[in-house]
Design brief:
Layout: H1 2-7, H2 26-33, H3 42-49, H4 53-61, H5 75-87, H6 93-104, H7 117-131, H8 142-152, H9 163-196
Helix pairs in contact: 2-7, 5-7, 6-9, 7-8
């Protein structure tokens, strides 16, 4: 399983190696990208996430990602793209969309959001970084995973009653799906090595 952790050497949802930016993830990573600008272009997102432009435009067309403003995407839009990207090999895109709507309602209305998507990405990264040394949730009981999620989101304040319960339930699914995607990648790597023998 140590190879699984090695596969997790990228910043979640990106093609950027953690070591290239001193292990930075979550909000700190997003803040570095948006240090001098309040929006990034589609071409920059392609470089960060490793997703082709037509895929990203399809996500926008389907309403899974909000429209760019003046051809620029915000920090929260990038966070949403990274979350979708990190889950798409283990979950159907429609299910990812439902999960994100479960947390934050409609894509174009921030008033129904229980958390900014950049902060959601921060929590995802905190939890991943916390449990990665154990090999992931497959080496934990459900109660242990829920405890880590509760610890890492302890600074979250409910915007509406029950918001933290919804957030933690969604995070549990996101974390398990993310590690499932790492297992899928690890399996593909092992399969590829059989073809080379």
């Amino acid at each position: 399983m140590s190879n699984l952790i090695a596969i997790g050497k990228y910043i979640p949802g990106t093609v950027i190696l953690r070591e290239e930016i001193n292990g930075t993830t979550g909000l700190e990573f997003l803040d570095r990208i948006f240090f001098v600008t309040d929006g990034i272009m589609l071409s920059q997102i392609r470089e960060i996430a490793g997703v082709d432009g037509s895929t990203l435009q399809n996500w926008v067309k389907r309403g899974w990602v909000g429209n760019a403003k003046n051809k620029r995407y915000s920090k929260d839009q990038l966070a949403r793209i990274l979350i979708i990207n990190m889950l798409r090999s283990s979950m159907q895109l429609e299910n990812i969309d439902f999960l994100l709507r479960y947390i934050n309602g409609t894509i174009d209305d921030a008033t129904d959001d229980i958390i900014p998507e950049s902060m959601l990405y921060e929590y995802v990264c905190r939890i991943i970084d916390r449990i990665a040394p154990t090999g992931g949730p497959c080496n934990m009981t459900r109660e242990e995973l829920r405890k880590v999620i509760a610890e890492q989101t302890s600074d979250y304040e409910d915007k509406v009653e029950g918001a933290s319960v919804r957030l933690c339930a969604a995070l549990e699914i996101i974390i398990i799906a993310y590690f499932a995607s790492l297992l899928t990648a690890y399996s593909a790597e092992l399969y590829g090595s059989l073809n080379k023998e």
